Structures are given as structure tokens and as C-alpha cells.
Amino acid sequence: MLRVGVIASPDKELAPRAMQRLAWLDGRCEVVFSDVSYDASHALVTKPDLLFVLGGDGTLISVAHSLGENQLRIVGVNLGKLGFLAEFTIEQLEREGAFLFGADVPVTCRVMLNVRIEHAEGPSFETPAVNDCVIHAGPPYRMIELIVEADSEEVATIRGDGLIIATPSGSTAHNLAAGGPILEPTAESFILTPICPHALTFRPLAMDSHRRIVVRPARSNESTTVSVDGHTRRVIQRHDRVIITRYPADFLLVRNPKRSAWSALRKKLMWGARPRSGD
Asked: Which of 10, 68, 75, 158 has the lowest CB atom count within 10 Å?
């Protein structure tokens, strides 16, 4: 019988009720783990085949971080607002979730970043990223300069408010707001999108995910910061380095067979919607 883990966001009021409604799992699988937490590492000892994550996209990202290189197939159950990564609702699972217990569960394997920050003074820091690594200018908000290299070859010196290095999963997050392209979730690429560049010639760039990208601040502010998935933040200065490589494990997200990536763009982000006529 299929082994299943359940983990729910501690910040969602609907989480306790949603966990109760997962009683429909009884008889279909063996529930070997259940917790209200952002840390799913404790589930690994029970060796679940699927992990149901109840919350929103932020919950899924936190869970993926906690799993590290031992990624599990995740069923994202949306209890939040947008739910771009969390593809299912409780109602959909109750009506249509039988496919999860078949032999061929549809899973998208999504590239993650490995972000390593090497400080000129002090210990290094390393973390995975599901969506993006963002270098912000920070207070006092003067323009910064970032030297970008790929496989030891200089790509550009970017002057502006910062730089976003995003995965295909993160292409619809900060990257999209900054004018970057939308990529298919299963694309094996990184996206480099300058934030408010000081030249019209700078445009977003997609690179193969097997590149080793190094970003060095040539000019920074006192609080120039690296933000990873909107959670982890580290201040960097001149002579520090941010090294981006492909994470050894992929983010494994169970796909809703009734919903395509394009329908999510249309329905949730209103992509390609026609302009509305005036009153």
C-alpha cells in the first residue's frame, strides 16, 4: 500500500479542518506521518511515497528547503490565495484524487538553485532555492555594480538596483514582476534578470542550468543583501561572491492532470487576457 505523509502550515487557520478532511485517504493508503510544521525533514525517516503539503506556495517552498537533497513527491494543497505551485484544493482531491494511488502519478521535475555565498571575511553560507536568488541594492539605495561570470567567463557588469537569478518555477514570481520571461516549469534553465538597470541595453538572459554563475559586487551599499526565496537574507559587500549552480536534487511536484501550466497562467495571472471595455 502507498505510504503517505501529511504536513500543514502552522499559519493557516484552515489547516486543522483541511487535515480532518483528508480522512478520505483511509483505505486508499497508509498515512505514516502527520504534522503541523514547515519542517518536513522528520517525515523522511518514515519513507513516504507521497507528501501532502497543506498551505500555500510559501509552505511548499519551506518544505522543499527542509527536505534538502532528499526531495519527495509533493502534492500541493492550496489553502492560500494564489496557489500557483499548490495545484489542488481539498474539494478537487475528494472528487478526483484517486489517480494519486495509481501506477503512473504525473510529476514535474523542477530545477532548483544551489546558492553559495562566500564572504571575504567570515564563514560561507549555502542553501537551495526553489524560486530565486535576488541581490538587492539595499540602504542607502545607491546604484550598485555586479560583475557576472558564467563558467569563468565574464558576461556583464550590471549597474542598477540588483539582479534576480530565477528558476523556471520562479519565472512567474519576482522575475516576472521585473520584466523577465516566463519559462515552462520543466525547462532546464536559469534566468538572469537585472532590476532597474542603468542602461536600456540590459535584457533578461536565460542560461543552461549546468552553468556555474558567479556574481561579485564591484560596488555595493552598506546593506546590499542576497535574498533566497524571500526567506533567507544575507548582507554582502565588495570581495564577497555569490555562486549559483544547479542543486543536486530537483523539486518534485505532483501535477494536476486537469490543469495545464498555461491554464494556471490564464486563470491566476490573467496572462493574455483581452483588455476590458469601459463602462
From this structure: 10
